[in-house]
Design brief:
The protein is α/β, with parallel strands linked by helices and 311 residues long. Helix content is 46%, strand content 17%. The strands form 2 sheets. Strands 8-7-2-1-9-10 form a 6-stranded mixed β-sheet, with helices on both faces. A 4-stranded antiparallel β-sheet has the order 4-5-3-6. A hairpin with a 6-residue loop joins β7 and β8. The chain starts with a strand and ends in a 7-residue tail after the last helix. 50% of the residues are buried. The C terminus is likely disordered.
């Protein structure tokens, strides 16, 4: 049976103006931005809609992206399109859990605001970096960095694209070694720390205390976790998985492969850009991918996939 997955991107895709057209044209999106701004004491409208110096700082990025993705997702649902399963890359997993019914939108946003702060504080600014390695298999990347003490695999994105993470100087050194070993490109990412590495274990433990106070609810549909790449149907597993997630590798390719094996043949990327759609097409060109980052795309996709006009 044909199934639809909603997928949500992680940190690095943020840009000024994201979500503004939804705020202006949808009451539900406006409500999410307004309520979230009040809940976390931060003007998310100004942060997301206007050019500023804060949007790329992890402490602010995470709440901004999750708010934007949730606002768009709720408009998509209001227009009649619903998922059979959800997944998100790193930060995007919080949006996936909320859309699957496991936590409220406001709890997701307030939690990632704290998550971003913990991750920002874990390693001093400039001392950690991440880099996308293109044109090598994950196994080839692993073989090159295996003896480097402070470099790790952060993300298994798709065939021939792996992200490494660690101390800045050593990531730069790893880039050079990987290029010499045959990588086509090694691109430093727009993030401010060595995320998904052992350097974030303490951030995860701080997050554990925050998650202990969050009320999780029974999932309406399953989501796929980054930590194992597998379906989660029991919400009781979520707190421990989210605690581990900040310091664990993101198994995105494995997540997508498991969804496809379960019958998912249509992926709808909700948020900013088309990064995940690109990954998914490289994993399996036979599936359909759609991206929704603006109002026009939302109308087109919901109309094509059976949505009904309610706005």
């Amino acid at each position: 049976m044909s199934k639809i997955a909603f997928v949500f991107s992680g940190q690095g895709v943020q840009k000024a103006g994201m979500g503004k057209d939804f705020y202006e044209q949808s009451e539900i999106a406006k409500h999410i931005f307004d309520e979230a701004s009040e809940r976390i004491g931060l003007d998310l409208r100004k942060l997301c809609f206007e050019e500023n110096d804060l949007l790329d700082r992890t402490e602010y990025t995470q709440a901004a992206l999750v708010t934007t993705c949730l606002a768009i997702a709720r408009v998509v649902e209001e227009n009649g399109l619903h998922a059979d399963v959800t997944a998100g890359l790193s930060l995007g997993e919080y949006t996936a859990i909320a859309v699957s019914g496991g936590m409220t939108d406001m709890d997701a946003i307030s939690t990632v605001k704290k998550r971003g702060k913990f991750m920002q504080e874990a390693v001093p600014q400039g001392e950690g970096a991440m880099s996308a390695i293109l044109g090598m298999t994950a196994e080839q990347v692993e073989s090159v960095i295996t003896n480097m003490e402070n470099v790790f695999v952060a993300n298994y994105n798709c065939p021939n694209q792996t992200v490494i993470t660690g101390k800045t100087e050593e990531v730069q050194s790893a880039n050079e070694k990987l290029l010499s070993a045959g990588a086509k490109r090694a691109m430093l990412l727009n993030v401010s720390g060595p995320f998904h590495s052992p350097f974030l274990v303490d951030a995860g433990e701080k997050l554990r205390k925050v998650l202990a106070d969050i009320s999780f609810t029974k999932l309406k549909i399953p989501y796929v976790t980054n930590v194992t790449g597998k379906y989660i149907t029991n919400i009781e597993e979520t707190k421990e998985l989210l605690t581990k997630q900040v310091a664990s590798s993101v198994l995105w390719q494995q997540s997508v492969e498991n969804m496809i094996a379960d019958g998912v043949d249509t992926f709808v990327e909700i948020g900013v850009g088309k990064t995940l759609s690109g990954f998914i097409k490289k994993i399996d060109r036979n599936v359909k991918t759609y991206s929704i980052s603006n109002w026009q795309e939302m109308k087109k996709v919901t109309d094509e996939l059976g949505g009904r006009d309610k706005c």
